[in-house]
Design goal:
This protein has 244 residues and is mostly helical. It has eight helices and two strands, in the order H-H-H-H-H-H-E-E-H-H. It is rod-shaped and about 110 Å long. Pfam families: RPW8.
Length: 244
C-alpha cells in the first residue's frame, strides 16, 4: 500500500481519501462535527490539487511540492480505513477522534501553504511577463530608431549620388554635339570616366543593400507587433527599392 501511494500521482491518492471519507459518512449514518470538518477540508483541497496536477503535467514538472501532502493523505487513507472497519463505534473513541482532528488540521495547513505558494508563483510569473514585455518594447524602440537612421542614410546617399554623378545641362549638350559614338537607331553613348561609372555603381549598390536591409528590419518589427509608423516606413522603403 505504501509503495503504491508513494509512486502514485497526488490526484489519485487524494481521490482515494475523498471516496473513503464519503463512504465513512454513509456507513456511520451520522454527520459528526469531525467528519463534516474533514469533508469540508477535502472539498477545499480538491480544486487546488487538480490545478497543481494540471500545471505540473503541462510544464513537465515533478510533484515535489506535494510530497508532504501525499504523506498526510496516505496516513488519512489508513485512518479512514481503520475507522471503516468499525463504523458503529469508532467515533466514540477519543483516540480516533483526536486522529481525525489532527488529520483535518494537517490538511488545512497544507491547503494554506499551497494557496500561498500559488499566489507567490502567480506574482513571480506576472513579474517575469512584465519584464519580458519591457524588453520587447525596448527592442522594438531600438529597431525603430536604427531603421530611421538607416532611412536617413539612404536618403543622404541618394541626394549625394544625384549631385555627384548628375551631368549638367550645358555639359550634356556639348557631349551630344561632340560625341562620335553612335548606336543603332540614332542613339548616342555619352562617354564617362571609368572611375565615375564605378563610383556610381558602388553608391547605387550600397543604397540598394541598405534599402533591402531596412525592409527586412521593418518586416521583423511588423511581425513583433510594431506600430503603424513602422508599417508606413516599410512601405516607403519598398517604394525606394522598387520604384515605379
Amino acid at each position: 500500500m505504501a509503495d503504491l501511494i508513494g509512486g502514485a500521482a497526488i490526484g489519485l491518492i487524494f481521490s482515494e481519501l475523498y471516496k473513503g471519507v464519503e463512504n465513512l459518512i454513509e456507513k456511520t449514518k451520522k454527520f459528526s462535527p469531525h467528519l463534516k470538518a474533514i469533508k469540508a477540508t477535502v472539498d477545499s483541497l480538491k480544486p487546488v490539487i487538480d490545478q497543481i496536477e494540471e500545471q505540473n503535467k503541462e510544464l513537465n514538472l515533478s510533484n515535489e511540492e506535494t510530497e508532504k501532502l501525499k504523506r498526510i493523505i496516505s496516513d488519512g487513507i489508513k485512518l479512514v480505513g481503520d475507522c471503516s472497519k468499525n463504523p458503529k463505534w469508532w467515533y466514540r473513541k477519543a483516540s480516533y477522534t483526536d486522529k481525525i482532528t489532527d488529520l483535518d488540521e494537517a490538511l488545512k495547513r497544507q491547503l494554506e501553504i499551497l494557496k500561498a505558494q500559488g499566489l507567490r508563483d502567480g506574482k513571480e510569473t506576472l513579474i517575469r511577463v512584465t519584464e519580458i514585455k519591457k524588453l520587447i518594447n525596448q527592442l522594438q524602440a531600438s529597431l525603430l530608431q536604427a531603421s530611421c537612421l538607416l532611412l536617413v542614410l539612404i536618403i543622404f546617399l541618394i541626394l549625394v549620388s544625384r549631385v555627384m554623378f548628375s551631368v549638367p545641362g550645358g555639359v550634356r549638350e556639348k557631349q551630344l554635339a561632340t560625341s562620335s559614338a553612335s548606336v543603332p537607331g540614332g542613339g548616342i553613348i555619352l562617354s564617362r570616366p571609368a572611375w565615375l561609372q564605378l563610383g556610381y555603381f558602388v553608391v547605387w549598390l550600397f543604397g540598394k543593400l541598405l534599402a533591402y536591409a531596412v525592409s527586412g528590419v521593418f518586416v521583423c518589427m511588423f511581425i513583433l507587433g510594431s506600430n503603424v509608423v513602422a508599417w508606413k516606413l516599410f512601405k516607403i522603403s519598398i517604394d525606394w527599392v522598387s520604384p515605379a
